[in-house]
């Protein structure tokens, strides 16, 4: 299957999930995750109109970012080591993996030096799977209280990864859980601005994520392919 065909199939599935859940297609944005593919393939994805590009390691993203730069809008979706903040800051437009205060402070410090603001998603480990990064749900509110004091970070939403399930339906409680946490956060009054976004859903489970309120889905293999 070529890229164009994959896009059409994915698009039809997104539309159908939106229809089933009474949501509007414009409320769900797609991040094309290009971590498995090279610069040429990434270029084609952008030419097809998918300008939101997700990468999870700076080493892999670098040649693409250097060649394509502002043709894309860049989302850092992987675990971010504190000593790598200097590489990604000012290049990636969104950070989806804010999950600890040391990282928040380093992002804030570097952003302040560069006089920019960084839109961030807080990553929550809703499933409790040990292999997953992210805050434990019970630590979200105290974390937001601390992060709220930093001037350069804009918390715009929450992000999670569901465990891979052969039956994607089984991921539903994870996505519903993230939505509930967002609503609780908005009810808590801890943030000056309410957060709207839920970054959740990947190739295996994006339809369930849409049904549960995803505003950003992160699609790699199903959209971009593997190589
Ligand atoms: C790789 C990756 C994706 C995309 O994975 P697919 O299953 O190929 O769609 C999404 N989010 C994160 C955080 C990833 O690392």
From TrEMBL:
**Xref: PROSITE patterns:** UPF0001
| Residues found modified as N6-(pyridoxal phosphate)lysine | 35
- Show the SUPFAM superfamilies listed in the entry: PLP-binding barrel
Q: Where is the Alanine racemase N-terminal domain?
A: 26-226
Q: Out of the domains of life, which is the source? A: Bacteria
Entries under Gene3D superfamilies matching the protein: Alanine racemase (3.20.20.10)
The record's section on Pfam families has: Ala_racemase_N
Name the InterPro entries for this protein.
Answer: Ala_racemase_N (IPR001608), PLP-binding_barrel (IPR029066), PyrdxlP_homeostasis (IPR011078)
Give UniProt keywords alphabetically. Pyridoxal phosphate
PANTHER family, A to Z: PROLINE SYNTHETASE CO-TRANSCRIBED BACTERIAL HOMOLOG PROTEIN, PYRIDOXAL PHOSPHATE HOMEOSTASIS PROTEIN
The UniProt function text for this chain reads: Pyridoxal 5'-phosphate (PLP)-binding protein, which is involved in PLP homeostasis.
Q: Which family does it belong to?
A: Belongs to the pyridoxal phosphate-binding protein YggS/PROSC family.
| UniProt cross-references to HAMAP family, sorted A to Z | PLP_homeostasis
Protein name as it appears in the record: Pyridoxal phosphate homeostasis protein
Organism of derivation: Ferviditalea candida
